[in-house]
Design goal:
Largest sheet: 6 strands, mixed
Shape: globular
CATH architecture: Roll
Structural class: alpha+beta
Number of strands: 6
CATH class: Alpha Beta
Order of helices and strands: HHEEHEEEE
Strand order of the largest sheet: 2-1-6-5-4-3
Strand content: 35-45%
Radius of gyration: 20 Å
Number of domains: 1
Number of helices: 3
Length: 189
């Protein structure tokens, strides 16, 4: 049974507002990660305010320059990347939020070696014109290492990519709408 909005207490409405804000903030952080892995410039820039400052490794600057620098670096060094978001805390203060988001970065390098690294994105987000975006980011890299390489599982299955081939652009199957299966039923024995 649903509760009519009019009967919600002001405390409950405030908690719902905060929950919506936290989700919009997490959505902005997720847009950044997805955009990095898919080389989606528009999606990447939608995670940041135009005047944002980002400090990441040797880079300190704005979102446009970060996109150009980081995608060139990843295109030269890796065949595929995964920017995974993990533990996330968010302190809301009106139209400002301070977040700490743990991440795990994994990459298949051009030489087929595998690189992983972990750290935290420490962000200040601001809501401007009703939209939460990153205004300041510090990337704290805390560890890094190589893991043994092995063949990608199921790469030898003839139609494994029939529903779409992984790509570092918007031809990736994650952009397909509506998503559909064209592979034939197969139950390995």
């Amino acid at each position: 049974m649903s509760t009519p909005v009019a009967s919600l207490s002001s405390d409950r409405i405030a908690k719902l507002d905060a929950l919506l804000d936290r989700q919009e903030i997490l959505d902005a952080l997720t847009r950044f990660s997805r955009a990095m892995d898919r080389f989606d410039r528009d999606l990447f820039l939608s995670a940041f305010h135009n005047d944002a400052t980002i400090a990441a490794g040797s880079f300190v600057g704005g979102p446009v320059d970060l996109y150009d620098w980081s995608t060139a670096m990843h295109a030269q060094g890796q065949k595929a990347t995964h920017h995974n978001l993990l533990n996330h805390t968010c302190d809301l203060d009106g139209d400002t939020a301070h977040t700490e988001t743990y991440y795990l970065f994994a990459a298949r390098n051009v030489d087929d070696s595998n690189w992983i690294a972990g750290g935290r994105y420490i962000d200040r987000l601001e809501r401007r014109d009703g939209e939460w975006r990153i205004a300041l980011r510090t990337n704290v890299i805390e560890w890094s290492g190589m893991v043994p390489s092995m063949d990608i599982p199921f790469a030898d299955v003839p139609d494994v990519y029939a529903n779409g081939t992984p790509a570092r652009d918007t031809s990736d199957p994650s952009y397909t709408r509506p998503l559909a299966n064209v592979r034939q039923p197969s139950i390995p024995r």
